[in-house]
Amino acid sequence: MTQARPGLGVGMVGHAFMGAAHSQAWRTAGRFFDLPLTPDMAVLCGRNADTARAAADRLGWRDVETDWKELLTRDDVQLVDVCTPGDTHAAIAIAALDAGKHVLCEKPLANTVDEARAMVAAAQRAQASGVRSMVGFNYRRVPAVSLARRLVEQGRIGEVRHVRASYLQDWIVDPEAPLVWRLQAERAGSGALGDIGAHVVDLAQFVTGDRLSGVSGLTETFVRERPLPSGEGRGPVTVDDAALFVGRFAGGALASFEATRFATGRKNQIRLEVNGSAGSLAFDFEQMNELQFFDGTEDPDVAGFRRILVTEPGHPYAGAWWPPGHGLGYEHTFTHEVVDLVRDVAAGSDPVPSFADGLQVQLVLDAVVRSAAAGSGWQAVEES
Amino acid sequence: MTQARPGLGVGMVGHAFMGAAHSQAWRTAGRFFDLPLTPDMAVLCGRNADTARAAADRLGWRDVETDWKELLTRDDVQLVDVCTPGDTHAAIAIAALDAGKHVLCEKPLANTVDEARAMVAAAQRAQASGVRSMVGFNYRRVPAVSLARRLVEQGRIGEVRHVRASYLQDWIVDPEAPLVWRLQAERAGSGALGDIGAHVVDLAQFVTGDRLSGVSGLTETFVRERPLPSGEGRGPVTVDDAALFVGRFAGGALASFEATRFATGRKNQIRLEVNGSAGSLAFDFEQMNELQFFDGTEDPDVAGFRRILVTEPGHPYAGAWWPPGHGLGYEHTFTHEVVDLVRDVAAGSDPVPSFADGLQVQLVLDAVVRSAAAGSGWQAVEES
Amino acid sequence: MTQARPGLGVGMVGHAFMGAAHSQAWRTAGRFFDLPLTPDMAVLCGRNADTARAAADRLGWRDVETDWKELLTRDDVQLVDVCTPGDTHAAIAIAALDAGKHVLCEKPLANTVDEARAMVAAAQRAQASGVRSMVGFNYRRVPAVSLARRLVEQGRIGEVRHVRASYLQDWIVDPEAPLVWRLQAERAGSGALGDIGAHVVDLAQFVTGDRLSGVSGLTETFVRERPLPSGEGRGPVTVDDAALFVGRFAGGALASFEATRFATGRKNQIRLEVNGSAGSLAFDFEQMNELQFFDGTEDPDVAGFRRILVTEPGHPYAGAWWPPGHGLGYEHTFTHEVVDLVRDVAAGSDPVPSFADGLQVQLVLDAVVRSAAAGSGWQAVEES
Amino acid sequence: MTQARPGLGVGMVGHAFMGAAHSQAWRTAGRFFDLPLTPDMAVLCGRNADTARAAADRLGWRDVETDWKELLTRDDVQLVDVCTPGDTHAAIAIAALDAGKHVLCEKPLANTVDEARAMVAAAQRAQASGVRSMVGFNYRRVPAVSLARRLVEQGRIGEVRHVRASYLQDWIVDPEAPLVWRLQAERAGSGALGDIGAHVVDLAQFVTGDRLSGVSGLTETFVRERPLPSGEGRGPVTVDDAALFVGRFAGGALASFEATRFATGRKNQIRLEVNGSAGSLAFDFEQMNELQFFDGTEDPDVAGFRRILVTEPGHPYAGAWWPPGHGLGYEHTFTHEVVDLVRDVAAGSDPVPSFADGLQVQLVLDAVVRSAAAGSGWQAVEES
User: Fold this and answer.
1) Do residue A263 and residue D245 have CB atoms under 8 angstroms apart?
2) Which residue range or ranges hold the Gfo/Idh/MocA-like oxidoreductase N-terminal domain (chains A, B, C, D) (predicted)?
């Protein structure tokens, strides 16, 4: 019987955009995937009791806490899901791991490299006693992206020569858009670079199975002052609006990256193209159920980028859902994340992306920041 | 408080493909949309008790029944959701309505026009006592399709001149694919025409706000015998593999329709294009988050089909979900269906598509069958 | 030496749209393709001497005649290229063939089946004495279309099951567009059906290598009266604005066709999709350098419609032009037509499409007209 | 009478790929555009007399010379068209200009900045006596690209914030592809950067109407040794296979550029996207007859990138050719180049792109090379 399976009590911190996405994932994962543990949406934590209670009702959490530290003492919480802004990730995640709770932490792992290193250390300590941790780069788990990784791994595109990745949004093109927390360095750590650039750095490294070794970049803040959210007065924007960089992978591939919130008309466009000696792959999140694949070993008469609808039973994650051709949406990436995490927890295996993977992304972003500050000069990505 | 809202007890009959889709919708609707009634997934009904119990656990239903008639007597069921094959729709839906239960019935409404007429009569009787009914043409509630309807209603494409609609699949191209119930006339009523052609007939009529008045068509069964699902022996395919027809709308537009399960490489491609005197619209379910719109009143120098990402807050349904650019999937069409149905039930308004709308689609399909049987001669669509 | 090659004197009748396209073809063919005969643009024939002379200068013709009969007596004309409206095709082509001149005749072959039959008879008489004839269905010679034909011939898509073809334009959506000759039955013979429908009928038959055996269709004239080109008064539109039909191929495939001048936003969109038991092909003239090919024998994990850029050296015609990825335009279809015709003339082989092919297309259109006149009832395509 | 127009004698140096493209342009320009001077294809110059004669016959040139200096003394040559590899551009162009001949010079203007500066000086000297010069960045004259420029100029996208440009090819992915002159620094000057990167730098500057002020980049040679074309032995590749850089425009926009010959499956893909404060534009040469335009001032409900088919009478160059929807190909960019040049020569106005524009592109490429050599550090683009 399904209900005889052991449960996995979850406590989630934060209930904004990411909180809603994670809730849907926790609620849905076991309905479509055969999970060894049954997620129990035990507690939602938010600073304001009333707001948190309303969110818990709406999102489907049983209890509410207003202090995340309470989660660590509850017996009905075995896993802490961190959905807060980046400035609190380190404190919550480290404490949770040290308290023996598995941790799923939203990206970016932390706002600084030092915090990220401390989190990795905590994850390693915890791992010794069977406690698992994962950082939430959800776009890896778009079926088309997972398929891309699989094809690279199978050697279908040969040796990787080029990577081009961009994450384009336009939500603050209007100079009168307010100065929300994501535009404040002390809360968000970074702007487009850390918020969305982090995603494409992770995607590029995931799909290629390789790591950036050095970068050269620049950043820009186009609108340097914005209305305060309160409606009165204006304040300085202290993060980047856009970041561009070129880089090299350890394996020799060249790469270009771009992250911006000023690409008018591009709402949430994540593009990744990888060219190898034997083939190429291209992905665009605007058509998230498709992967473009060029097989360079084909007869040139019939070679061409093929648009694979990644909805076949044999495709990553797809078989658990609907028949071929019935696509998935944004939210399903989080469901897949939860599925894999729960399976790893049950199996005693280490989830990916690990905190170390998250740190490595931070190190890339850090190198970009250093390069931008130093006249775009080349900066090696530090060893994690 | 959210939980103070009155509940709406649901009993669902059937737990295969459609049952899974509907379950996800019932589970999700209230998490993203502000519903006046809180759906309660009370009972799942399936003929085999063990299978039904397992499905209920997996899909999230509290109780199980093996006879759908039991649903009609339960106080915790106010709405019956019919997800069975078409040959049982009429019996269940009519009994439920007569028992004062609201009904959501999967398409096609029925396997025969007579059954459909009886269902409409039952719906009308029930309506008098405040009982609601809806037929599940879910694709209407793809946000892009709803937006298309809105643009036509606003006059953005002028007078409709052309409609072309197709629903292409390829799941039985292999002549060794087994003779499942969908290929048997006595269970499915019809083949590609009734199963998927029904969807595009409804879409075309919905988007244009008009009705087909006559048709001329043909049908074909390419593979006339298939292996029995048991694995032993072969049996005759008694439904069409493909159907094509041309037609006229009451308002004067010309139309062409195609439904087939033999379009190799087309997994679930629903395409609809509408050309009007002032503009055009085009939709392709393979890119379900997009609507193509040509505004014929634009300066020709900058006129072109625009690819609208239908994920803006102002777009139908989209605002309840994620930020712009974060697309939805197949399953969300069912969630939208449930949201609208629950709101109508609470408001005492009549949901669409109504059973009468479902009957009208049946009448179109019936005219196609008559035309195909009579040398493709023109057949008027009967009045409902 | 190139110049030592024998010449082929050409006389062209008509110098409007088609005349300009053919002139560019005659001028260009030998510059990129190795031709056994060197085309000599000897004479341009137009009814008005001054207009014809100006056209000849602009288009590159040496002499001018005002009566096409003069072409038949000139020793410097071995080939007559007929670019006039359809009502004069039969008279000119038959006289030219009987005078021993090779003939290239624009489509549609004729305005009536009777005329077309007479032209075929003339072509057969002429063939006996080595005189060649070709009808100008230029779209066959888009490299992507020729490649599609080749792939069907090689069995790459298996047995053809479905054909859907449409030719969409919007040039007379405006009800105040004037009553030009193409809208008058006595000059044009037919409207959208004969002008552009003829093209897609030919394309579908060419690519499949099969012939339509029967059809059921309807036609419509949305705007029944238009301003006279003179600017004074209005006159009746005597041809169809749009035509739709379904049909069956001799080999068993189902087909749908549409031709319209009322598809707002579609300027010259020719689409053809062919689904076979082993694969599919799709073409859209708006991306004329591309062919979509789905190979149904591929592993489903990597199967998808591939976008072949038809610019490789091994692709039909492409090798004579530019390096891969440097596309061709509309006009090149005429150049390819001329290249093949000149080679056939030199080799003593029969060009395709032949007049008999042109007649066969007329017979299909004729069956559509008969069906439309008879309540869309099925009409067999007459034997040619 | 057309033939009464004065002629413009042309002498072309070189008859390979570019020679064939230019010949088609000279032959065609006056057939579709109303030119004030009639081009006379007087002399083709090639080092080998027999080869040159054969080329002249094939390409349509009257006379042949084997020494380009002879062109400068011929009275029937008023314009010299330089289609040779880059190492000879400076010598030929400067001598021609000094001899009073107008010059059309293929890109890149020269192999070194010093040569380019000398050419600009010669062009300025010549201009004083009414002698014109133009550098052949043909892609500017794709109608869609010219339309993009027009829309930027009209302020339709507001202030430019982002430019991303790439030119991807794959012709030497195979490590056994031979060491042709384009892979030798002494002939070609540069590799992907100078050959194709130059095009996208020009395009980006042309469309934005702005100039790059600084860059940071890197280059790579993936395959460092290749078979000699003779078939015996191998030699070193002395140019880059790929180049990537980021940069800033004088007006404040950020930019990224990429040029490579190692993008498997990309045959000749030129992409340009420009994001402004009020809209965006995107172009892809694989669909050269289309321009994507996002109008940020639209109601968000109907905003979207619109695919403009750039074939309308009001579009740049398009009106001279075919009706709407009948696209052009690669070669037409050269025809447009010739048309504009001839008109400027006749009008006594200065053609664009000028030699100074060509120099400016060289200065950008030079800054990239310097940056790549200096650890990707920022390099200002020198003033021309």
Assistant:
1) no
2) 9-127
